[in-house]
Specification:
heterotrimer; A alpha+beta (177); B mainly alpha (312); C alpha/beta (742); A: 177 residues; alpha+beta; Alpha-Beta Plaits; 4-stranded mixed β-sheet; 6 helices; C: 742 residues; alpha/beta; Phosphorylase Kinase, domain 1; Rossmann fold; 5 domains; 7-stranded mixed β-sheet; 6-stranded mixed β-sheet; 25 helices
């Protein structure tokens, strides 16, 4: 099993609902966020193109944060979800420095925090809060090891990219372009 | 024009607008650790070669401070932790892929050894030194017999510690500035250079040891410079992220600091002063020594700062 | 807290667990299991009040009984189970510490922000006494209600009982009024809200200045996404590279204020090339020949000179629409009060849709249906002797609703008028920010005998009140059922999820108590909102109990006429001719142009740029600017400036500048520059709703600049009184200039 997310940049309008939904679902304190939205525009008026992307922890297959963690607080669970165990985290911030996506931060309580793919919902067969709330339905969550999952089919059908593939982390958030 | 912005207002403390998770504690820790490693390497190495008496400053005097510097380094490492009450988790795991993990274990073993090493040599450094209890004196005297064994252990652990200070950074693929295999040897060398400067401060005036360490210091500075050039060339011949990263030193934010503090004050001027000294021109050794030590500190400080700013 | 995912009790000893682990319950000594913690403790139905879309959803409570999160109701056609960021962040309205907490009575000068705390009884006595005095001296009609949102219904009931018909919302004359009037003139029906556009099934969506995706009109955003999925063509006309423009096959970067020329030219091309739906036009339309003659000179070449849109692009896009016809929507937009000829521009939009045969067709405009809920049995309202219209003889004759700006203007006494408004009740609308030209609004307020503001938050307008009544948020109260017109008729319940915080009350309760003081008891026959709702629900075979469980109830349509003209069925339109009036007889009768004409509008003078304002998806007007969850996403606006212009002025990204408009008005606060290719060189853009001056808004005060204060000039639509607001120009100051000096 390999949980992954596909985000359709053609549909995303950058409303940031994914960010608020994550904050309320996971009680992320105000002033912090586990996901965020990037707007990238290129060209010169009026020949322009724009891409909108909801970003978060990429739950990398080759996760540098897990490798560099001195205590096994950062670990990978069933389905490839990268998690942080607050009771094992010493707050050395090595994982923060190791993440090319800047997806981690220090929770006000001291431990390192980040996207969990809403594992507490996923375990119940639900989608992560960001996916569930997205008004444009531009986000898809599923198992890429299962060739019949919606996400696998989508990745077969559509052109996609991942972020900073040159960092060699094998990210599991796919952007449909 | 390419415009890329986070439109959802992300402002995670220490992450935005650019990474700043590691304040001055970390470079200071790295510097002190490398300095101590350098001091202990010289001391242990010369002991193993049986030249303790030729190099009293390097073998016996300089290491007295080492455990205390190491203590400060450890304290800084602790201060940097944001979840301090859980620090003990460091010692419930050994994670070979995590430099911080084996670095922490190295600290754990080296610190008591450094204290023992200092205790063994304290009477040489301070001839009037007396231990408060007789049994301590007896105990320490008995340890002297295992000197060689301690020296081997200290040499191994110090080399590890010196390398660790660099590998901690170079293991981070995510930060183009740090992502270079040169940083490990560079920091080790820089630690040795700083150690030579520290030893020079402990050498009696006009001693042979001082002359010799001046030469060692000069060689070490040379190797260090070579590694630094190598580092920058490495950036420039790598991918765009590293080319952009190198720009931080070659025209960007850190250019002035880098060239003045590290290249000029930390390397060229002390090297020149060393050469003058070796040519028997009177130079107060404190000047090049302090410059080298500060240069060593700033090398880490700037690399840690710039590394956090550099990104893919 | 996600800690719960990681409980590994007893693994490592050292006793650290109880010390910092929230999972350990000290009170009972029990260690809670994952299941305990993940259980949703309770969910209460509500519908959102952060914007007018009114999505139905659920308020979820956590184990302590506090509001945890808000989610959409799957059965609600407004949101289909997905709230927008503002709806999701609606919790912030409840948790905002800056909320109004207790009734206040003014002690100092108006606007001096000096108040004393009062009891509800004191506040109501004060208001009732003043209202009765106004009624005696000038007549009850001199009281006006400005509202935006659910509270308006309750205060409206009270005011009608009191004898005043002057109930208004800025959403008409400052927003969607022209579109309603124009479509009514053409089709005999308005657009309504949610808009009756069948975006999910359309093949071609044409947006003219309508920035769906930035305006977060939930259902529409969702349907636009569905349309993108299905491969619909999107054509966006906007001087700004909007989010919608970035999703479009064609983006027409039009010169601002020239949309009418483009529309007329599209009509010209579609008629000339005979791309219109002939059968549909033959059967339903009136005045085609007049229209044909009228547009014969409006060639794409003519329009090119005005709009800067190339003739071949005009032809190509017209062809795209024609190819998709009738599954095409030339979107009527929502905020359309731009240049003062807005009703006419929207007439052109409605005509274009008629030629394409999209009205009443799948993929075009559907026929919404509303469920009829039993009316309360109330005594007859007294018949008013006068209304706001008397202040504007022979003007705005087609205005279908009261004009907020009109009532504001009619509050400032003039020699000609024998009666001006004397009392305002303002509920849920920050008039300083919603009406153009705040100075004018303040002058009006200074002439009032009574000014009551009911709001959840201290806003600019609350500072000018005589009495401030703190309303609880929508999460703490019942309200009228949401009865909305949609593809399927639905009703939705709003029930309180939590007790009223501070000394706040619901608008219903306030209106009832105030009515008691005004001896209008009979208009609120029920003791509580529950009783009123339950009675009403029982009349339609439901109950409060049932609605509490389901939140939204769907009903079958009475008639199977979602697309009544799909197969050219017989149909009589509610117009003078019974047809779709391409040529409007109603307009002609009232002395207005029966066919839309192009008028050139003023252009910015040298060194000035047209001020274009709009919405951000994370905020609703100025009302959310202090919401902790939403300020976290966006806490200030910035001013978009084209790189060429920025270079000319030497402006850099994030530099703070002051804006000054053509009348010498300077923004109260500086605003950060965003240098971006997304805006034309002759315009600047900013998001509406920032630059709050009320210091009680700890998060919003002084953040960004207010577009409203720079909109001192308006072009009034002669047909319905809409205030055209895109007619202001601004220039830049890198340092705060002394007021008045350009």
């Amino acid at each position: 099993m390999r949980y992954a997310m596909a985000i359709d940049t053609k549909k995303c309008v950058g409303c940031s609902d994914c960010v608020v939904a994550c904050q309320t679902e996971n009680n992320v304190p105000i002033g912090y966020c586990r996901d965020w939205v990037v707007e990238a525009t290129s060209g010169t008026y009026p020949d322009l193109s724009m891409e909108l992307r909801s970003e978060r922890c990429n739950h990398c297959t080759n996760a540098p944060c897990v490798r560099c963690c001195p205590t096994e607080a950062s670990h990978i669970v069933e389905g490839g979800i990268v998690l942080v165990d607050p009771d094992q985290c010493i707050g050395c911030k090595a994982c923060i420095a190791s993440c090319p996506y800047d997806a981690r931060f220090v929770h006000p309580e001291g431990y390192v925090d980040k996207c969990t793919f809403c594992i507490h919902k996923v375990e119940k067969g639900e989608d992560p809060a960001c996916v569930e709330v997205c008004p444009t339905k531009c986000m898809y969550f599923g198992d890429t090891d299962d060739p019949n999952s919606d996400i696998s089919k989508l990745l077969k059908k559509r052109k996609w990219k991942t972020l900073i593939p040159e960092a060699g982390t094998e990210p599991n958030i796919y952007y449909l372009i | 024009m390419i415009e890329e912005l986070i439109i959802s207002g992300r402002m995670n403390p220490e992450i935005d607008p650019h990474l700043h998770a590691w304040p001055w504690y970390v470079p200071t820790d790295l510097f002190l650790a490398a300095l101590v490693a350098g001091i202990l390497i010289f001391s242990a190495f010369l002991t193993l070669h049986g030249r303790e008496n030729e190099f009293p400053a390097a073998v016996k005097r300089a290491p007295i401070l080492a455990p205390f510097l190491l203590g400060i380094a450890l304290l800084l490492l602790f201060l940097d932790l944001s979840h301090k009450l859980y620090f003990w988790q460091l010692y419930t795991n050994i994670r070979w892929t995590s430099p911080l993990s084996w670095g922490a274990w190295t600290y754990l073993f080296l610190t008591p050894l450094a204290f023992i090493w200092a205790a063994i040599h304290i009477k040489t450094a301070f001839p009037n030194w007396t231990w408060p209890y007789k049994w301590i004196d007896t105990f320490i005297e008995s340890l002297k017999g295992y000197r060689i064994w301690f020296a081997w252990a200290i040499l191994g652990l110090s080399l590890t510690l010196g390398m660790y200070t660099g590998i901690l950074l170079s293991a981070f693929n995510a930060r183009p500035i740090w992502n270079s295999a040169i940083i490990g040897p560079l920091f080790l060398t820089s630690g040795l250079t700083s150690a030579t400067a520290f030893i020079l401060l402990n050498c009696p005036k006009g001693s042979n040891e001082k002359k010799l360490f001046c030469t060692v210091s000069l060689i070490s500075l040379g190797v260090q410079t070579f590694l630094m050039i190598h580092l920058v060339m490495g950036y420039l011949s790598s991918d765009l992220a590293q080319v952009k990263a190198a720009d931080l030193f070659l025209g960007g934010e850190f250019t002035t600091l880098f060239w003045i503090l590290i290249v000029a004050l930390g390397t060229l001027i002390p090297a020149y002063l060393h050469i003058l000294y070796l040519k028997n021109i009177k130079i107060p050794v404190i000047v090049p020594s302090i410059l080298i030590i500060l240069g060593g500190f700033f090398l880490r400080y700037i690399l840690v700062e710039a590394g956090q700013i550099s990104h893919w | 807290m996600n800690r719960r995912d990681f409980i590994k009790i007893g693994g490592l000893g050292l006793g650290g667990l109880a010390m910092a682990n929230p999972i350990f319950d000290w009170a009972t000594g029990a260690v809670l299991t994952e299941a305990d913690l993940q259980q949703t403790f309770n969910k209460i139905p509500t519908y959102c009040e952060v914007c007018f879309w009114k999505c139905a959803g659920w308020a979820h409570l956590n184990e302590k009984g506090d509001i945890w999160k808000l989610t959409g109701n799957d059965n609600d056609p407004h949101c289909n189970g997905r709230l927008c960021p503002r709806g999701t962040g609606g919790v912030g309205m409840y948790y905002d510490d800056d909320r109004l907490k207790t009734p206040l009575i003014r002690t100092g000068e108006r606007g001096s922000q000096s108040f004393r705390e009062a009891t509800w009884d004191e506040a109501f006595d004060y208001i009732a006494e003043k209202m009765q005095k106004i009624a005696e001296e000038y007549g009850p009609e001199c009281m006006a209600l400005f509202s935006h949102g659910s509270g308006g219904k309750h205060f409206g009931r009270m005011l009608k009982a009191f004898g005043s018909p002057n109930i208004t919302a800025p959403s008409y004359a400052q927003c969607r009024g022209p579109r309603e009037v124009a479509f009514f003139a053409t089709y005999g029906e308005g657009i309504g809200s949610p808009e009756r556009v069948d975006i999910r099934d359309t093949d071609c969506l044409v947006l003219i200045g309508s920035h769906i995706g930035e305006n977060m009109h939930n259902g529409q955003v969702q349907e636009m996404s569905d349309a993108i999925d299905k491969g619909a063509t999107i054509i966006t006309v906007d001087p700004r590279f909007s989010t919608a423009a970035s999703k479009s096959k064609y983006w027409l970067p039009i010169k601002p204020s020239t949309d009418m020329a483009l529309l007329l030219s599209w009509i010209h091309v579609i008629i000339k090339e005979e791309w219109y739906d002939k059968k549909y036009v033959d059967k339903y339309a009136f005045g085609f020949e007049e229209l044909k003659t009228h547009v014969k000179d409006f060639t794409p070449e003519w329009a090119y000179g005005i709009t800067t849109i190339k003739p071949n692009v005009i032809r190509k896009t017209a062809k795209e629409m024609a190819n998709a016809s009738p599954s095409v929507i030339v979107h009527p937009g929502r905020h359309v009060t731009w240049y003062g000829d807005d009703t006419q521009r929207l007439r052109a939009v409605s005509i274009l849709n008629a030629l394409l045969g999209s009205w009443g067709r799948r993929g075009g405009f559907y026929n919404p249906e509303k469920y009829k809920v039993a009316k309360l049995k109330l005594p007859k309202y007294p018949k008013p002797n006068k209304s706001w219209r008397d202040a504007f003889p022979d003007q705005y004759k087609l205005a279908g609703l009261a004009l907020a700006s009109g009532i504001c203007d009619a509050t400032i006494p003039t020699d000609e008028r024998d009666c001006s408004f004397k009392g305002w009740i303002v509920n849920g609308t920050n008039l300083i920010s919603t009406l153009p030209n705040p100075k004018n609004t303040l002058e009006a307020i200074q002439n009032l005998d009574l000014m009551v503001v009911i709001d959840t938050m201290p806003m600019e307008i609350t500072g000018w009140a005589d009495v401030v009544l703190p309303e609880c948020t929508y999460l703490e109260r019942y309200d009228n059922l949401r009865v909305s017109a949609h593809r399927e008729p639905t009703i939705a319940l709003r029930a309180p999820a939590i007790e009223q915080k501070y000394n706040t009350k619901s608008a219903w309760w306030m209106a009832k108590e105030l009515s008691n003081k005004l001896n209008l008891k009979d208009y609120f026959p029920f003791e509580t909102e529950e009783e009123e709702l339950d009675w009403q629900l029982k009349q339609i075979g439901s109950s409060l109990k049932e609605m509490n469980k389901i939140g939204v109830k769907k009903f079958d349509r009475k008639f199977d006429d979602l697309y009544p003209l799909e197969n050219l069925e017989e149909y009589e339109f509610n117009t003078n001719t019974g047809k779709i009036e391409l040529y409007s007889t109603a307009m002609e009768d009232e002395g207005y142009d029966p066919l839309p004409k192009y008028t050139a509008h003023d252009e910015p003078p040298d060194g000035f740029y047209r001020l274009i304002y709009g919405r951000a998806p994370m905020h609703t007007f100025s009302r959310t600017a202090n919401n902790p969850n939403l300020t976290d996403l966006m806490d200030e606006n910035d001013v978009w400036i084209n790189p060429k212009v920025a270079k000319e002025w030497g402006l850099k990204n994030n530099q703070e500048i002051w804006l000054e408009n053509q009348d010498g008005v300077i923004s109260s606060f500086p605003i950060k520059v965003r240098v971006t290719e997304r805006i034309r060189w002759d315009s600047v853009y900013m998001v509406h709703g920032f630059g709050h001056t009320n210091k009680n808004l700890s998060r919003a005060h002084g953040k960004g600049a207010s577009d409203a204060e720079l909109i001192t000039k308006t072009k009034i639509d002669p047909i319905m009184g809409g205030t055209g607001m895109r007619v202001n120009f601004v220039t830049f100051h890198t340092e705060l200039p002394t007021q008045g000096g350009a």
